[in-house]
Each structure stands twice: as structure tokens, then as C-alpha cells.
Design the sequence.
């Protein structure tokens, strides 16, 4: 083998190894992003399932804002179910009065908003007319130096145990 042949072989080998390295790093990034998306989606679905179940079991909506909900609990005096979104910590929490445990349903939420609807599903601000709640949010995480966002989750939850 001559020196020229060795140098050509080294250059070709280096190019092949470089292409393989770039392909491996790209595949690793996409795999991490997909795993992150699946995890965020599972946590969003779990949070929505828990909220839907507990809101449907709760009584009347007593306080409302785009970041705060408070429900009276049926058959319990001065007992409430509360949902709060804190933009500073980017988290949605749930807690009940008389219970020292705060349940963090979501973390890393860039945006969250509650909305209130009447019986014909028109937007309302009147608590006595509230028959349903809308909730939507967007969460994200930083994976391998890049921000990875989940598509917006949204749902309409019907308030079932509202006293007449």
C-alpha cells in the first residue's frame, strides 16, 4: 500500500464514521423527544382524568377565575375542592380543605386557562349559570438543549352534582 492509498482510506473511513455519528446523534435526539412527548401526554391525560372524575363528583362551583376553581364538596360542611395554576412555578395543583396533602397534577405548564359555560355551552361569568368547565393547557420540557412542547390539551367537563 502506498501513502496515498492509506490517506484515501483514512479520509473515506473518517467520512463514514462521521456520517454514522451524526445519524446516531440525530436518532438519539428524536428518540428522547418521542419518549418525552409520550411521558408528557400520559401525565396530561392522567391529570385530565383525575380532574374530570373529581369535578363531576364535586358539588357547586363556588369560586372561578381563569387560573382558580373552588367547588363545594357534597354532604360536607365547609369542605372544598380547589384547583390552582401558578404561572410562577408552571404547575397545576389540587387540594381539599381539611387535607394537608397538595396533589401536583401538572408541572412545566407554559399556559393554562379555565373557562366556564352555561347549559347551552355558551361562555358565561355567572357562577349560578355554570354547567360546564373548559380547561386547556400547553406543557413543555427542555430535552438535550431544545425545548419540546406538547400540543395543547383541552376538554369540556360537565358539572354533574350541582344543587338545583
Sequence:
Amino acid at each position: 500500500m502506498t501513502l496515498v492509498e492509506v490517506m484515501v482510506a483514512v479520509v473515506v473511513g473518517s467520512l463514514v464514521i462521521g456520517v454514522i455519528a451524526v445519524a446516531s446523534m440525530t436518532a438519539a435526539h428524536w428518540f428522547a423527544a418521542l419518549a418525552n412527548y409520550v411521558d408528557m401526554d400520559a401525565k396530561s391525560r392522567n391529570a385530565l382524568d383525575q380532574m374530570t372524575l373529581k369535578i363531576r363528583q364535586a358539588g357547586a362551583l363556588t369560586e372561578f377565575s381563569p387560573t382558580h376553581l373552588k367547588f363545594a364538596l357534597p354532604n360536607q360542611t365547609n369542605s372544598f375542592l380547589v384547583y390552582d395554576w401558578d404561572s410562577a412555578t408552571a404547575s397545576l395543583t389540587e387540594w381539599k380543605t381539611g387535607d394537608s396533602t397538595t396533589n401536583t397534577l401538572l408541572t412545566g405548564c407554559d399556559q393554562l386557562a379555565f373557562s366556564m359555560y352555561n347549559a347551552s355551552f355558551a361562555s358565561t361569568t355567572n357562577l349560578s349559570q355554570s354547567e360546564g368547565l373548559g380547561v386547556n393547557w400547553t406543557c413543555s420540557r427542555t430535552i438535550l438543549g431544545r425545548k419540546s412542547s406538547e400540543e395543547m390539551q383541552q376538554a369540556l367537563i360537565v358539572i354533574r352534582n350541582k344543587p338545583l
Q: What stands out?
A: Helices lie at 3-57. The mean pLDDT is 89. The first helix runs from residue 3 to 57. The longest strand covers residues 132-143.
